[in-house]
Amino acid sequence: MFYIYFLKSRVNGDLYIGSCKDLTVRYKRHNLGLVRSTKSNRPWELVGYETYNTRSEAYRREMFLKTGQQKELLKKKFDNN
Description:
Layout: E1 2-9, E2 15-20, H1 23-31, E3 44-52, H2 55-65, H3 68-80
Antiparallel strand pairs: 1-2, 1-3
């Protein structure tokens, strides 16, 4: 099982989209400051995730969601929750 996950910074409200095989371990790494791209905006809150059968499916979805328009729609969705 592979995951696309959505993190929201509790510091500035930024949204981070990532993919992984082990969601629990990856989430901990983000909040421990072990991921360079998210280190400065800790702590992070897991606001959602999607599951996929293959790494390639998850990667394609991640790349699609990282496009400007899609990411803006996700920001609005998670700001309203």
